[in-house]
Amino acid sequence: MFKYLQKKMDKALHILKGNNKITEINVTATLKEIRRTLIDADVNYKIAKTFIQKIKEKSIGKKVLTSLNPKQLIIKIIYDELVLLMGGKNKEINISKNPSIILICGLQGSGKTSFSSKLAFFLKKKNKKPLLVAADIHRPAAIDQLKIIADKVDIPVFFLKENKNIIEIIKKSFLYANEKKCNVIIIDTAGRLAIDKIMMNEIETIYRYSKPDETLFVVDAMTGQDAINTVQIFSKVLNFDGIVMTKLDGDSRGGAAITMSSVVGKPIKFISNGEKIENIEIFYPERIANRILGMGDIVTLVEKVQEQFNEEKTKKIYRKISKNRFNFEDLFEQIKKIKKIGSIKNIMSMIPGMENFLDKKKEKKDSFKEIESIILSMTPYERHHPTLFSNSNRKNRISKGSGIPLKEINLFLKQFDKINKIMKTMNHNSGSEIIKNFLSKMIN
């Protein structure tokens, strides 16, 4: 996510490296490269021009403190302008009522149904009791898609498969929510084109009848500048409260994401950057600006770690480690939790400087898949008794079962031993530190 922008920004700021003062010459060269980067990332030309002009005005003649160098000062100015461009501050969704009604709308194929499920799961983790309403009466597979995803995480879905009366569906869903004591109702509507009068009339009807506390417009980030144009057209018909950017893990250059809020005048409230139901993030302009400028996003990483590693389970693992009983079954459980946080690439992009480190490791295989294959090739008894692997016959059998060379099996066993030793030095509250050390070992 935002990898293209990050790389190009880093290249542009490299021009200032080694300079001990800000001059019009080195600032102009840097800003020229940044403007090119923004336009290549699909930022509107006029917005890019205004953005650069503001930075230039704040940079030229600026006195550099002795504790800073010109590059650091320019980065601070760019950071401030990026945050403003992306809306300034995070705007939370309104879920204060009981029940709170959230209306999800957007174009066909933008990822509304997937996002609706993700939002329901996100709110469930916040101790809410959500109900998903399948209000797409046009796409045959819409109800099934929503139900399949929601069933996996035990979230109720209301639908009337044979009924095509949209108002009746909404009305009965409210009664069902009351019966099941659900305090958030998420209405997944049909995808539409802004020029489709019939579909636009339908969403207006749903909006007027349901009186949502929050209306979110879902946009595919991969459509770039067209996404901004679509949101502008749609906002003239429906007064939505916020924007959701999906598919930011795809071939998106990020231009739409960093400029949409200022152009449309609506805040981006969520971003989606993967297929898994956990792949949803609240949009924080300051955190995204940090990522774009290569400064990571440790706050989001820690939040994601805390979601998966509660205090009680961390203490339990710590007690096992201190008694030298941490085994392959425990490691397997930790890997499953880490994978829920996100892909290795996405996790490491949140740690400052790690993106460049990963680029040098492109040839590295998926360590998690290899480790899982090795552990799954062990017997249950072997998983709970790591000391058994002094026996070469066992290692040979696991090598054949997993399809992984014996050399790599031996390397894994050494890594496991090292991780065990590292983890023994940490206290029971160091869940996030355990994760970072584990990840570091896996990619080295």
Summarize the structure.
The protein is an alpha/beta fold.
Considering the chains and any ligands shown, give keywords for the structure.
3 domains; 434 Repressor (Amino-terminal Domain); alpha/beta; disordered C terminus; 55% helix; Four Helix Bundle (Hemerythrin (Met), subunit A); 444 residues; 8 strands; 8-stranded mixed sheet; Rossmann fold; flat
Structural class estimated from helices and strands: alpha/beta
CATH-defined fold name of the largest domain: Rossmann fold
| Sheet having the most strands | 8 strands, mixed
**Total individual domains:** 3
Q: What ranges have pLDDT less than 50 throughout 5 or more consecutive residues? A: 360-365, 427-432, 438-444
Rg from C-alpha positions?
Answer: 25 Å
Strand order of the largest sheet: 3-2-4-1-5-6-7-8
**Strand portion, in percent?**
5-15%
CATH class of the largest domain: Alpha Beta
Helical percentage: 55-70%
* H-E string: HHHHEHEHEHEHEHEHEEHHHHHHHHHHH
Helix count from the secondary structure assignment = 21
How many β-strand stretches?
8
Q: What do the pLDDT scores average to?
A: 79
CATH superfamily of the largest domain: P-loop containing nucleotide triphosphate hydrolases
Distance between the termini: 22 Å
CATH architecture of the largest domain: 3-Layer(aba) Sandwich
